[in-house]
Design brief:
The protein has helices spanning 14-27, 51-56, 82-95, 97-128; strands at 3-8, 30-36, 42-48, 61-69, 72-79. It has 135 residues and is α+β, with helices and mostly antiparallel strands. The chain has a single domain, classed as TATA-Binding Protein, CATH 3.30.310. The protein has a 5-stranded antiparallel beta sheet with strand order 1-5-4-3-2, with helices on one face. Helix 3 (82-95) runs antiparallel to helix 4 (97-128). It is globular and about 40 Å long. The chain starts with a strand and ends in a 7-residue tail after the last helix.
Length: 135
């Protein structure tokens, strides 16, 4: 289950936004890749760096899909690998109960990440686009 939002983005340089978003993820210790989808939308796949995170259930992965029509930017954010959280959480609780804490922390990070992404994109648009101010 994901979240979808649309933002007004007058004169948005779409490619620049995608590159800045990717850069922001990398600076926050994510692996990030940008892919063009068959329908023309842009997919930014992200995953928190560190193979140890996968082992202990703290791997955070999301798909961010961006598309632009006229003066509007559509943002869709959804989970990339919720199954890791569930599987490692169950295994951790059964075998190593202290590791269940790391699975919970990983899930918490993933739950909060979409809002951080929306805020980053909104801030980017506010500072880079000529959107009309409401009075």
């Amino acid at each position: 289950m994901g979240e979808i939002r649309s933002l007004k983005a007058v004169e948005l340089n779409f490619q620049e936004l995608v590159e800045e978003l990717k850069k922001w993820f990398i600076e926050d210790n994510f692996n990030a890749q940008v892919l063009k989808m068959e329908d023309g939308r842009t997919l930014v796949q992200i995953e928190k760096q560190g193979s140890w995170r996968k082992i202990v259930g703290m791997s955070t992965a999301l798909n961010v899909i961006l598309s632009q029509e006229a003066q509007e930017l559509k943002i869709e954010i959804g989970p990339g690998r919720w199954i890791d959280k569930t599987a490692s959480g169950i295994i951790s609780m059964l075998l190593f109960w202290p590791m269940s804490i790391t699975a919970i922390l990983g899930a918490w990070d993933q739950m909060n990440l979409p809002e951080q992404i929306f805020k980053y994109i909104s801030s980017y648009i506010s500072s880079h686009c000529k959107n009309e101010q409401k009075q």
